[in-house]
Each structure stands twice: as C-alpha cells, then as structure tokens.
Amino acid sequence: MHDLATLREALPGQWRVLATTFPMWLSGRRLQPTFRYGLLPGEPFALSDEVSYRTRRGATKRIVGVDRFDPSTGAFTWRGRGLLRVLSSQWQVEHLSDDRSLVVLSFARSLVTPAGLDVIGRGSGEHPNARERIPAEVLVPDLHWLS
After folding, report:
1. 13-23 as b/e, with b when 16 or more CB fall inside 10 Å?
2. Among 35, 64, 90, 125, which has the minimal tally of Cβ within 10 Å of its Cβ?
C-alpha cells in the first residue's frame, strides 16, 4: 500500500491508459482513454477525476467524478458527478514506478463494471518500455495492451 503523501504527489495530472482488462476500453467503441486527476482543496485527500475518450466518430466524451482516499484501506472511492452521481466504485494503486511515470490501478467490481486492472502512463505520449517496467506479480493474464 502506498502512503497518502506519495499518492498526493504522484497522481495529479494527465494519464493515458496503456493496458487494460476493462471491456469498455476493449470494445473498440471508446478510443484513446485518458484520466486527469486534480487535487481538491479542503479535503483530507480527494481528487477530481475526469476520464476522456474518443468515439469512433471522433467525438470526445467525458466521465467526471471525485475520488476520496481511505487511509485505513489504501483505496479510493470514486463517485460520479451529474447523472452519474448514483454510481460509485473502489480502486487502488497496485504499483507506482520509481519515476512515477507508470501506475497499475486495480478496480473492484461495481454495479456497472467488472473488477479489473489498468496500466496508465503519465502524459499523452508513448511509453515504449512500459511492459518491461511493470512487475509481473501485479499483471494479470487477460491484460490487453492498447498500443
């Protein structure tokens, strides 16, 4: 489990989904998924959370929510905003690379998504050696690399 100070420093910013087990990223209907986390003021530790992706027709779509950290479990609880406010899910950081440019996230099963894993890379650029930099013990057999 990563400590609060490390996560508070490492997570804010833009991240690109490099590999995933999630059907929503593997169906071919939602392309080039990115996450953007921002620190929220006045909270013990909470992040604004914006997931963006491109549709096959080229439109950009967004899913917006807030992640609240529970230091007793080391997990975040995501709660949607707007029409998605009735939805929530839990996730945690399984691995953070030494240079903090790669993160492995695990997600618990929710009302609308299966349990799964995402490998994300900082920024929108390529991470050509990401596969070699992720410890084998945190990866799963059904992980699909998106690029």
Report:
1. ebbbbbbbbbe
2. 125
Angle at alpha carbon of residue 91, lines to 77 and 18, rounded to 5°: 135
- Tell me, what's the pLDDT at 55? 96
| 91 CB-near residues (< 8 Å, 6+ apart) | 67, 75, 76, 78, 105, 106, 107, 108
Q: Is 14 helix (H, G, I), strand (E, B) or coil?
A: strand
Separation between Cα atoms, residue 5 and residue 8, nearest integer Å: 5
Task: Give the pLDDT score at 87.
Answer: 73
Write down the pTM of the prediction: 0.92
| Angle (nearest 5°) at CA 3 between 91 and 101 | 70
Q: To the nearest whole number, what is the mean pLDDT of the chain?
A: 92
Q: Please calculate the CA angle 105-36-55 and round it to the nearest 5 degrees.
A: 95
Closest among 68, 103, 66, 62 to 81, alpha carbons compared: 66
